[in-house]
Amino acid sequence: MVLSLGCQSDNSGQTSGKSNDGKRKFGLKPSQKNEDSEYGLKYYEGIGWRYIKPGLDIEVLTYTNTQLLDYVRKAIAEKRFDDAMFGARYFVQRTPGADDVPEMRRVVAEVYESRGLEEYAFKEYQKLLDAHPGYEKSDEVSARMYEIATLYLNGKRFRWKIPYQDSIYIPLFPSMSKTSKLYTQIVTNAPFGLHAAESQYGIGQAHEKALQGFWGFFADASEYDKATRAYQLLADRYSQRAGDSPRENQEKLNEMVAQARFRTAELYEAQANEGIYDQSMAERSIEAFGDFVEFYKADSDREEKVTEAKAHMNAMRLERARGLKGIALFYEKKRQWVAAHTYYGQINQALIIDVLNDPDHEAEAKELQSFANKRLSEELFQWRVRDALELYAEAQKAEKKNRPFTAQREYRKVKLNLEILPADLERAATATEIDLVRLQEIQSAVTADLERIQQLLDERELARSRED
User: Is 26 exposed, middle or buried (CB count within 10 Å of its CB: 0-12, 13-18, 19+)?
Assistant: First the structure.
């Protein structure tokens, strides 16, 4: 069935077994057991096995190299792709060391491209570069490979070619994983070639698109890291450093480096917006945008982009403040007032003057700042002293019931809650209408309580070791 499918030819207009002038050609005979038909899978003495499609001129197998080259060039010009593919492959196999082999390999790749089998064309171009590293038109080949990879980046579906023929295929789906590998191959071939930086950027873009998954499914968050590393490698490898001689395409490289730096910061920003309790990405985004500003603040051509980077920084500082508030509220629910106090305190560090004066964020930033300051100056202290009283009572009950570990844990919380300045303790006691003297007594007594409980636990441990 596969061979039958392979018989579909794009050489319409040719009569099976006849030359273009209508005369039957002779001179090449298959082995005796195959002479029933000139077409199909045949074995020719001195040549080997060949699959001959209807419409192919088998006399091609008897041509000299010059004749064969002319035949292939004419076939490709006339878009007789079956003839061109057959002749080019035969030439490469018969004379692999000939000077014209690279041209014939390009013919095979171009035929694949004409049939929408760009991935197979890419592989043929790669074979050309591998077999002929000094090929003078390698830049042209690299350009075609880059264009093919970009087709797949833009959503072209991959295709699986049915074996033993060159035109029938089964359509598959777009694949950003395979696309990133195509770009990676281009960079590997020539890390500082004309299309290397663009291909490195394409790797990052492919990983970003992979985040969309398959119709929304199977998206892998690790693609963030892969994309970021691709952009970082681009910026590191192609940046022009002090003392470096300009490369041939230095202006283009500079633009790619700038785009990669900005995109890295944007990726950190995207991750920061997805996780309120992970502040590291917001900090990385702020740092990356800050690096961009530092690199290009004196570059008049990138003034607009620098302003945009500063706006992103303010947005990320506000996002970080939101995250800090969320974490602080989480600790409030856990009655861990000291931890909540720490995170509320960091909100003011995040909301620097640039954010508070930014028209896009001013209202929310000032509201967050006011909320945090109220917690820090009033409410947290009040909750801490109330909690200290409750916990102290619970600790005393646990001690009376001979539960020293529970008592120790509660006494420690009491001590932590009451480790505040005398003025804050007095203000909190007044606001909550709690006896200040009582709070001061507990504050003084809890240290002795902890020592007593620890001594009891030590005595128990000593007694247990003696028994053992």
Answer: exposed
Q: Which two tokens stand for residue 109?
A: 């790749």
Alpha-carbon distance of 146 to 196, in angstroms, equals 9
Residues contacting residue 137 through CB under 8 Å, at least 6 positions apart: 102
Q: Cα separations (Å) of 119 from 176, 357, 381?
A: 13, 53, 67
Q: Which of 326, 378, 380, 314 is nearest to 350 (CA)?
A: 314
Contact 392, 442 (CB under 8 A): yes
Rounded to the nearest 5°, which phi and psi values hold at 52? -105, 115
Task: Give the β-pairing of 40-44 and 169-171.
Answer: unpaired
Q: Would you kindly state where each structural domain of the chain is located, as residue ranges?
A: 1-114, 127-233, 239-360, 383-468
Here the tokens at position 229 are 């590393």
Confidence of residue 22 (pLDDT cuts 50, 70, 90): very low
d(CA 417, CA 384): 5
Give the model confidence (pLDDT) of 258-268 as tens digits.
999 999 999 99
Q: Which of 407, 410, 389 is nearest to 399 (CA)?
A: 407
More reliable by pLDDT, 463 or 119: 119
Q: What is the mean pLDDT of the chain?
A: 87
The pLDDT of residue 248 is 80
Confidence of residue 62 (pLDDT cuts 50, 70, 90): confident
Q: How far apart are CA 152 and CA 182, in angstroms?
A: 9
Q: What is the pLDDT of residues 323-367, one digit of tens each?
A: 899 999 999 999 999 999 999 999 988 998 889 999 999 999 999
* DSSP single-letter state for residue 100: T
Q: Burial, 414: exposed, middle or buried (Cβ in 10 Å; 0-12, 13-18, 19+)?
A: buried
Question: Quick one: tokens of 411?
Answer: 């006494």
Cα three-residue angle 239-241-242, rounded to 5 degrees = 160
For the cut 50, the answer to whether the pLDDT of residue 85 exceeds it is yes
CATH number of 239-360: 1.25.40.10
CB 258 within 8 A of CB 282: no
- Number of Cβ within 10 Å of residue 232's Cβ equals 16
Q: At what angle do helices 222-238 and 250-272 cross, to 10 degrees?
A: 150
What is 261-313 written as a DSSP string? HHHHHHHHHHHHTT-TT--HHHHHHHHHHHHHHHHHTT-GGGHHHHHHHHHHH
